[in-house]
């Protein structure tokens, strides 16, 4: 019951976030990044100096500048957070793809090794048959076993451990110090 409530809440919040990202948040971004608005905002610094004795005007301009500052900071933080989340998703997808490719290449290598073993066995069988037909005795050559792929990797067997990616990721992550408050 609790997990179902969490899932429905997460779905509801996801729908709200999607709506805000598509229909609401682009408008403040368009307004705040409009060149004329930027120039006017910068230009309002001049009246702050010129009309420093007019308290109402100074407080009005200061309120506008504070509001713009908070809005810009919030939008920058929001988009930085979204970009970080997307980068994390991309990195996870790339890691998953790399693991799939690694498994595929490993399997292909194993198939090639099996093919070589089969070919060697067939060649040995042909040599034995030719030896029988020609009346000459044939002694089979010692066969080499396939190469262990794990020994080829610079990190050896540990590279193939199930939790290798998670351990390496935890070791390489930068940790911020805990908040003392």
Structure description:
The chain is an all-alpha fold. The protein has a domain at 33-137 and 149-167. The protein is 76% helix and 0% strand. The protein has helices at residues 2-24, 26-32, 35-43, 45-50, 55-134, 149-152, 164-172. The radius of gyration is 34 Å and the shape is rod-shaped. The two termini are 35 Å apart.
Report the total helices: 7
- Which spans of ≥5 residues are poorly predicted at pLDDT below 50? none
Order of helices and strands: HHHHHHH
Biggest beta sheet attributes = none
> Hey, roughly how much beta strand do the residues contain?
under 5%
Average pLDDT rating = 85
Oligomer: single chain
Structural class: mainly alpha
Which percent range fits the helix content? over 70%
Euclidean distance between termini CA atoms: 35 Å
What is the tally of beta strands? 0
Q: Tell me, what's the shape?
A: rod-shaped
* CA radius of gyration: 34 Å
